[in-house]
Amino acid sequence: MRVLITGAGGQLGRALVAAAPAAATVRACTHSELDIADEAAVAAAFAAFAPQLVINAAAFTRVDDAERAAAEAARANAAGPAVLAAACRLSTAWLTHVSSDFVFDGRQGHPYEPGARPAPLSVYGRTKLEGEIAALRELPQRCTVVRASWLYSAGGGFAGRMLALMRSRPELRVVSDQVGAPTHAAGLAAVLWALSERRAAGLWHWCDSGVASWYDFAVAIGEEALKLRLLTTVPPIAPIGSADYPTPAARPAYSVLDKRATERLLAVSAPHWRSALRATLAVPGAGYPQP
Ligand SMILES: NC(=O)c1ccc[n+]([C@@H]2O[C@H](COP(=O)([O-])OP(=O)(O)OC[C@H]3O[C@@H](n4cnc5c(N)ncnc54)[C@H](OP(=O)(O)O)[C@@H]3O)[C@@H](O)[C@H]2O)c1
Hints:
Rossmann fold; binds NADP nicotinamide-adenine-dinucleotide phosphate
């Protein structure tokens, strides 16, 4: 099967390439190799490679920057998926697209099912919602959309940023009133491959099990890194409220996703985020600089 992976230079894109099944012939395109919002470039990529499956990991993911770069965010997150879906419609390719927990406003007190009403709080969330709607409208029978939350990877995302800060700062202050489910990118990549192989049309949710605040996650990163000797000491970490750490973009206070339908379909159980974190940090050569 010929598979085009877009956004291949990002943390999820790299995990998708690493998790590719042996039967897949992968063309992995980074941003500089293929801009998903460029219709002519996408058409040329389809003409040259004739993908049977497209997995889109490309996105504008800098949530705060998106507030003042709304057009750029919309180009990558909304127009890009629409362009890919249109190219898939003109061929026979299946599209697997990734979206985000930030399409929700966080006011629901229990995990969000795929059918829950989206109400994004930020430009990032709104453009991600527009992208998933465009993809599903263009390709209702041939598109998988997977919403995921709080992605991190070996060397990337929040885990990578926290480890760098723990090495350089005497103390850290981390928000404790936003709750979600940290999700390792390698696990999401495996789920994306599995849903794509099954041609599971429609909206699906995926995240690791359990819930955490960013503060809980930071504390766990420090503890696991200490055990693995990635750090020699961990600076004190203080919990703070979102009001004490104002950001340009509002974030949902609660964005745990209900992933049970995906678990049932694939007959898998999501690992607890803490064990996935331990395993991710323990990967040799994971990209975390040694102390
Ligand atoms: N990170 C999270 O916490 C999180 C949570 C939930 C869902 N997601 C979703 O998961 C997916 C993967 O995110 P990630 O964490 O892997 O993000 P990432 O590390 O920022 O990777 C995204 C990649 O997309 C590229 N890109 C941006 N605009 C593009 C365009 N127009 N055409 C082609 N490539 C483009 C970026 O390149 P440049 O860096 O050169 O711009 C980057 O390499 C995204 O759909 C994201 O919305 C992420």
